[in-house]
Amino acid sequence: MAKRENSGVRAPAKDQAQASRQLGRAAAVGLTRERIVDAAIDLIDRKGLDALTMRELSRQLDVYPTAIYWHIGGSKADLFSDIAGALTAGMIDPEDTCADWRDTLRLLFRRFRERVHRHPNAAPLLGAQMRSNGAPNAPWVEIILAALSQAGYRDQAMVDAFNALVGGLVGFVTMELAPGPAEQTAEWEKSFEVRLDELDDERFPHTRRALPLMLNRAFVMRWKNGSECPLDTGFDALLESLLKGLELRAPANTPP
């Protein structure tokens, strides 16, 4: 019994000492939340999102994984959220807003796309990953809601307009920068192109006519992503279409 009581006392003390050493090491190398996020983004840029593991990140920073968890809040989901917030931080400030709500939204979403194009491997965190949503995105969410309020949107109509705008534009950018298959090779790319070129003229007349313009410049008809072949005019077309639609659907322009 005495042995069990003693071991029960020593184990927490040992854990505390180990944690203290780890945090002491982290402090010695200047570990901060910001440095962890910067290192994570650098790792994603160089090796892709799948390469971001706590083990690899701790190796890059030369600290124990425990020290990273202590700084970021306890889970990899918290790290993803911080990365998403860092990628869009300072994208637009309240003083950058324009007199016309449409110009504010143009500015915001063009800056958003430019920012994500600098870190294409992280694009899934800004659209497809629910775990990166939330408070870190609040600054630009506030700008969008203020613009929609200026346009006359309120309550559920504002939420619906917000979802249409963000879903369309963020979805476009994340699709544009979607990574190719892991087995992508020159042979795979050639095979992709050959299969498209073999489409039957009678069965797919519109596709065949448009194909020269669509190859590598249209969704589902490409084998290179937007880092190599950006879809600039398509993004502009979507942005202007959404703004026009929001303008027409604004409560002030909608018949009772």
From TrEMBL:
Give every HTH tetR-type domain span: 30-90
Gene3D superfamilies linked to this entry = Homeodomain-like, Tetracycline Repressor, domain 2
Keyword annotations from UniProtKB, A to Z: DNA-binding, Transcription, Transcription regulation
The entry's DNA-binding region: 53-72
Q: Which Pfam families match?
A: TetR_C_1, TetR_N
* Name used for this protein in its record: TetR/AcrR family transcriptional regulator C-terminal domain-containing protein
